[in-house]
């Protein structure tokens, strides 16, 4: 991911409020601007702008793969659309 990707994420209009990005370990954590709750994790997969999309699992208290068949790898823009449209990312609010 690039600095432009981070700007894209932070300027994206999520209906649940603003989000900021922190670089952590092997990826980027999206954090709700008002509550400080973790929203999603984007882990670059080494192929351009493709990222693995993870959500914070409350029962597991850990990041978990998003998707019906495990790992979901999408471009950054696609990840933002998925995050905006799926309530599982916003359950921690």
Helix count, DSSP H or I runs of 4 or more residues? 2
Give the biggest beta sheet.
Answer: 6 strands, antiparallel
Structural class: alpha+beta
Beta-strand content estimate:
35-45%
Question: What's the topology here?
Answer:
Elements: H1 3-11, E1 19-24, E2 27-32, E3 38-44, E4 50-57, E5 62-65, E6 73-75, H2 76-85
Antiparallel strand pairs: 1-2, 2-3, 3-4, 4-5, 4-6
Report on the structure:
This protein is an alpha+beta fold and 93 residues long. The protein has one domain (3-90). 20% of the residues lie in helices and 37% in strands. The chain is built from two helices and six strands.
Quick recap:
This protein is α+β, with helices and mostly antiparallel strands.
List keywords for this structure.
globular; 20% helix; 2 helices; alpha+beta; six-stranded antiparallel sheet; 93 residues
């Amino acid at each position: 991911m690039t600095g432009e990707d981070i700007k894209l994420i932070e300027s994206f209009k999520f209906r649940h409020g603003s989000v900021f990005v922190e670089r952590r370990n092997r990826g980027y954590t999206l954090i709700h601007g008002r509550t400080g709750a973790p929203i999603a994790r984007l882990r670059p997969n080494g192929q351009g702008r493709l990222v693995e999309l993870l959500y914070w699992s409350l029962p597991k208290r850990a990041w978990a793969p998003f998707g019906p068949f495990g790992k979901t790898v999408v471009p950054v823009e696609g990840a933002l659309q998925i995050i905006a449209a799926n309530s599982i990312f916003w359950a921690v609010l």
